[in-house]
Specification:
- The chain is an alpha/beta fold.
- About 45% of the residues lie in helices and about 15% in strands.
- The protein is globular, with a radius of gyration of 13 Å.
- It starts with a strand and ends with a strand.
């Protein structure tokens, strides 16, 4: 599973070529789309207003809700020192049946979380 964190969403909104090529492709299988945790989308919208509406129109994105299980996991991660803007991405990458990869501009933010962070470059 590919997970886009808030930094990746901001980069997407600013025209990042690799991310743009991933999210404009319509894929019938939701499992093959890039996944955006709701809390990451919210964090990105604080930095780049309008990104949520833009992202909602892209066919290659699947949005992950902040349901009870995610909320409890995010709370634990934040209590353990993970920044709230990254915590939902950590949960999303770690909770699937297939290990997720988080695309991010700040891979060091995921050090010690046990998830695989892929550097997309600075937005």
């Amino acid at each position: 599973m590919i997970v886009l964190d808030h930094t990746a969403m901001v980069a997407l909104g600013r025209g990042h070529r690799l991310l743009s090529s991933i999210v404009v492709v319509e894929v019938d299988d939701p499992a093959q789309r890039a996944h955006v945790p709701a809390l990451c989308l919210f964090a990105a919208s604080l930095e780049l207003p309008g990104i949520a509406a833009h992202a909602g129109a892209l066919p290659g994105l699947e949005f992950l809700p902040l349901d009870f299980a995610a909320t409890a996991a995010v709370e634990q991660a934040v209590s353990a020192g993970v920044d709230w803007r990254h915590a939902h991405a950590v949960y999303a990458a770690a909770s699937g049946s297939v290990e997720g990869q988080i695309l991010t501009a700040v891979p060091e933010a995921y050090d010690g979380t046990g998830v695989w962070a892929v550097d997309i470059g600075k937005p």
